[in-house]
Amino acid sequence: MFHTILIANRGEIACRVAATARRLGVRTVAVYSDADADARHVRACDEAHRLGPAPARESYLRGDAIIEIARRCGAQAIHPGYGFLSENEGFAQACAEAGLVFIGPPPSAISAMGLKAESKRLMAAAGVPLVPGYHGADQDPALLAREADAIGYPVLIKASAGGGGKGMRIVHDAAGFAAALASCKREASASFGNDAVLVERYATKPRHVEIQVFADAHGGALYLFERDCSVQRRHQKVIEEAPAPGLPEATRRAMGEAAVAAARAVGYVGAGTVEFILDASGAFYFMEMNTRLQVEHPVTEMITGLDLVEWQLRVACGEPLPLEQSQLRVNGHSIEARVYAENPDRGFLPSTGTLAHLRTPPAVQFTVGADATGRPAPVRIDSGIGEGDAITPFYDPMIAKLIVWGEDRAQAIARMREALTRFEAVGPSTNVAFLGRLMRCRAFAEADLDTALIEREREALAPRSAPPSVTVLAAAAAAVLTAEAMPGVATDPWSVADGFRIGVPLSRTLVFTLGEATHAVSVGYGRGGWTLRAGDTQVCLAALRRDGTRVSGLAGEARFEVSAVHVGETLHLFGTDGHWPFGYAPPLAHAGDADDAGGSLAAPMPGKVIALMVEAGASVRRGQPLLVMEAMKMEHTIAAPADGIVETLLYRVGDQVAEGAALVGFAASAPTPA
Prior knowledge:
nine-stranded mixed beta sheet; 33% strand; 17 helices
């Protein structure tokens, strides 16, 4: 086994590798950018070295600097994690030339599978089924359009060198092909430095099912079953589960054997994932191979009881695979939810900011092993983020991976629902509430899965519009009142804030805001406790208790228990009903919430202007694209909110803009008289 490895990555994967290495007695070295100087992965390792400024190109993508640090600290091997340089053939080759073990496949395998078009040709030769499409080197837009017409719409344009949903567009007709191709090529170039694309038939109601493969340097290769990753937004995975629901054993075996054939075809060594499209008929087609460990690997670990990072380290040391295919078994069901700093109600735009409050459900972290009964931990969390850390625009906005295990899928879903109700995050927007709605969605519960599930279940997944109940308002009032006056806190009778008055009892009004709605709650102080009135309803508050942030009590006959967190002028309530961010005394201002057709358009997120679609003085129609922004390597088009005139363009291509910054001076046209 290695004595020292350098982890050339950040976030939860760096923490995950460090945890396994520590258990094996292997010393670890972290690298970090200026944005990550105090990050959890830096503290998780035995030694840490600065790479450079925050942008990845100046830090985590500097292979030469990483190798030099590895030499200085005496590392024998480099673990690339996923993302950044993990699938970079040149970096893997440079490691070998420096006498360092790259904990991953050989450079030749990365090269073979790195370009989707080339990998498709190899897979066809190996007998792996392929989706019909164009995978050629000629990238003339006119040729690509003709190929799309020949394939038949809808088609999928994909970056040949890409992954993670970047540089990917579904095109439903010939009229939209040129614009989608141009956007896809821009995004591919920005993300991967290569704008080549391929065009494939887009399967209707497809499932995304991938196979975890492992191979050693002695000719051994096997598959560790499958994961269903169909629940996606913007072609990026949100929910992953293993095993894939409803997959016949014969299909599982055929897919596994095809995945192993794919790995053998390129001389693969280490952990890899072969991704397939599974159509409604049960036929499957090779999509791509990720030559690294995947973000969703924990669900495979939970159902097999195997530590895939340990397998990576042992195979990289030259050891044979520890098990044979016939020894592998599936135990139970596991689901992983990716908790992101993003706003699902605004098209899943990434969100940034400091996590002022972060509480997670009781769980183990990075733990693979089972208990004495053979059952894995019911809840696991893999995260490289802690309370007080900042989500920046420089890297992926994932906060944590929430993983659950159950005896069967129904139990796993129930555990995920419960775990999500106890996941509390304050600061940037998160998708926690959206994930909870996904777990309660009928289509997901019944395993009616395909990659368009989120889009077709949009209505069921929309946020609630009902106002807070009296019980929720009572909980908010209780949070305020218990913070002001808990029995036993005061040290003298003059400091007791219990509302005592000689004569007329004290009555006051607490004003809470939620969005644009105002909720006035009248509280009466009496000898027997508090009386609360909201609208036409009056209840007594009783049995109030506070333990840290946890507040519980009775509102009439209804019992409540919430976590109450004050951040600035917002009272955040977390409970089984979800997350209620109340503005409280004084109310939060909501200037700018409503769209204004005149004046200026604001940036919906921090990012960079990458294309201007109009010039100053241009007359435009409602919905016409004005400019394109890029954030976290994803493109977002800013469109005209109404018919009007573009008076000024406030930024140029390449300029960085902050969230909320005015982008365009815009004057709406006067309505035409009837």
